[in-house]
User: Fold this.
Amino acid sequence: MNANGDTRPVLTERQRKFLGFVLCCAGALLLGCLIASIVLILNRAFDLFSGVIWSLAISGMLAIMLRPIVTFFDEKIGLGRFASILLLYVLVITSAGSATWFLGGKVIGQLREFVGTAAEWPEKIEDKAKESLPAETWEAISSHFQAFKKYWGELVGSEDNPVAILLPPEQQEVYDNLNVEQRESFRALDEDERVSFFELES
Assistant:
């Protein structure tokens, strides 16, 4: 104790600065660990409840997007909130059903034709590349493309094992009884000719 009665500080100025620096680093480390733990917990929660969370998120976005339509039905037409929501549901279901009814058959037919020609895509790409690329460029990439063709053939089927055609169970049974040449001839038919073929076989 000095003459003025003041006690001597336990830590010097340098020690206090060092201790403050250590405490700040410890706090930053603790905060980082806390943030990492929260991220890990949220990640596992999203893994467990991702279906529910995404459903709620999409529902919330749709509710926000469709709110002006519900407000229009409620205020302009004079329907209540509940009746406006029901009317909106009916309109959406009717529109989706009409689109499926009128366009579904064409879309399915185009999809079947699209899938049925998948085995021919590498040849078409090769022909187009040979036409548009210089000979030196094609020579440089031809070996890689041949490897891709082999992989694609194993993936979707070769000419001897073509891509499966999407057919109803009864028609699929008839198709399975055809030999390789008959299947290739069948794949060359258009939609109407295939219908006539199955009518003759039934």
In short: The chain has a mean pLDDT of 79. The helical segments are 13-77, 81-116, 121-132, 135-156, 169-176, 180-187, 191-201. DSSP finds seven helices and no strands in the chain. Residues 115 and 200 are 25 Å apart (CA to CA).
